[in-house]
Design brief:
Layout (H helix, E strand, L loop, with lengths): L3 E2 L2 E2 L2 H22 L10 H42 L10 H8 L5 E2 L9 H11 L11 H12 L10 H10 L6 H17 L2 H11 L1 E3 L2 E2 L1 H9 L8 H10 L13 H15 L10
Helix pairs in contact: 2-7, 4-10, 4-11, 6-7, 6-8, 10-11
């Protein structure tokens, strides 16, 4: 039956009107949400393009991640392989600073010399000044390292705990300057270097790549440049002066040493004369 009851649609008409109102309201809500307008569906083509862009972005990230992993692996393998290649005495390694001088076309002076052709007093001076436990530790002096860490925590100036193997791998593979990253790389490399390379060969390499002034590398070039003699003929005093210049070779000139540097040289000279078993591994 049709008609109204108290002004309202009756029976089936009421249900139809109510459903139409709900459909209209739902269409408006979805339109506000940005999903559909008046019940329409999103464009399938746009959905597919968004999925493709997301997939391409993920693929590029994976490619770059793989490249990064490869680069890190190569960077790690280079010093590991080169260390083995540097064991034979006929191989004459160069430092990163020497490579920089070559790249910048400034050149350098370095004359390789065998360890037996370096004055014994020079060997003793360097060991007693730079790394007194050289013959006893395995690349890293844990006692000195603990002392430096305590000073760092206490806010005191750090003394420096670099051993000769640490300085050698830094010169061969890393860069100058203080940084936690470089030190973190230096420690395991020094342990590996000391494990693979004999002590006398480590000292020979170090003495031949150490910087002794602007574009001057190695003990032979330094001895001739500053004192006009070969490394084999250095006196105890000359050896001590060359040794104390090592921490800052650009600013310290062995032939123009000030009072403080001359005082340090006397201490090194005294220690070298009493080295004894401390240098037994390179006698």
């Amino acid at each position: 039956m049709s008609g109204t009851v108290d002004g309202k649609p009756r029976g089936g008409q009421a249900d139809v009107a109510h459903c139409a109102a709900r459909r209209y309201a739902n269409g408006m809500e979805t339109g506000i949400a940005g999903e559909t307008v008046a019940g329409t569906e999103p464009d399938p083509g746009k959905r597919d393009m968004a999925a493709i862009r997301k997939l391409l972005g993920t693929s590029r990230m994976r490619v770059w991640l793989r490249r990064l992993i490869k680069a890190v692996c190569i960077a790690v393998l280079i010093p590991l392989v080169l260390t083995i290649l540097y064991i034979p005495s006929f191989v004459h390694p160069v430092s990163t600073l020497m490579l920089k001088d070559l790249v910048t076309l400034t050149g350098y002076d370095r004359q390789w010399v065998a360890l037996e052709d370096v004055a014994p007093v020079m060997r003793r001076s360097v060991i007693m000044s730079e790394d007194g436990q050289f013959c006893r530790h395995h690349g890293v002096d844990l006692g000195e390292l603990r002392g430096e860490f305590k000073d760092l925590v206490a806010g005191k100036p750090v003394r420096g705990a670099s051993t000769i193997p640490m300085q050698t791998v830094k010169n061969l593979y890393l860069w100058n300057g203080r940084s936690f990253l470089r030190k973190a790389l230096e420690l395991p490399l020094a342990v590996y270097f000391d494990l693979v390379v004999p002590k006398d060969r480590i000292l020979e390499i170090y003495l031949n790549i150490a910087e002794w002034g602007p574009n001057i590398y190695g003990i032979e070039a330094a001895a001739q440049h500053y004192f006009g003699v070969s490394a084999k003929k250095l006196s105890a005093r000359q050896a001590a002066l060359l040794t104390v210049a090592l921490p800052n070779p650009i600013a310290r000139n062995p032939t123009k040493a000030k009072a403080g540097l001359r005082s340090l040289a006397r201490i090194v000279e005294r220690r070298a004369s009493r080295a004894g078993a401390y240098v037994g591994c390179v006698q």
